[in-house]
Known about the structure:
With 264 residues, the chain is α+β, with helices and mostly antiparallel strands. The protein has 7 helices and 9 strands; from the N terminus they run ααααααβαββββββββ.
Amino acid sequence: RTLPGVCLEKKRPSPMISKAHLAYLIILTADLTASLVVRPAHQPKTRINLARLDSAPPNDLCDALEDRGPFFRWQRDVLGCEVVPGGLRDLDSPRGALVAACAAASMGRDVEKRADVLPLLEAVEAINPTPNPLEAPELLSGCWRLIYTTSDGILGLKRLPFFRPRYKRILQSIDAVNLKAKNEEWVLLGRLKNSVRADLEPQADGRTVTVRFRRFGIGWLRFPAPKTAVGVLETTYLDDELRISRGDKGNLFVLVRNTGPSRA
């Protein structure tokens, strides 16, 4: 029974949260909290015993952590991202000075700073340890990350901002044994991948290849390249970490070896 003038509302059952949803909320909260934590400067650093690793951390991982906040710089120290004399992070070496200049020029996007890169690039070319890179397929093959180019088309300078390649995410894979190559870029904040596959035809000088593009890809869309899509690429410097190439249109390319095998 109800009393006159009194209205009793029927209580609704409280919504149930599954354990999976609760776990997701806990993980999300932990990630957000961790991203706001800055490690105190006085906290002791613990280094990984590099003797247990097959090699030093890859350069692309160290570079990815370099431009972040204090917590990420601390992670670089833990991983052992140290400056090795003559390495790519040694500013007193020709290779290190070139890599630093490429970064200062924003991969070539800062057109005014391209003039600073050219003399350093030529100085590295002068000490090329592999004059005939086509005869060293074990060095030439692999996945390479572009860190500098003078090609406005590859950098996407004339595209709308969202359709420009993502910073530090332009890759070139080479299979020097089967003479295949693949270029990849990520646009739309990394959500869409564009690619192009090509066949390589070596020339007699041992360092130049004719590049015949076979197939273009935009996201999941694939279509054949026109027969006129042909270029020439000369490798003017090659070691186990760094590669410099010159195109037939006068463009320059500086690449560092990326983690993992060739994706061609």
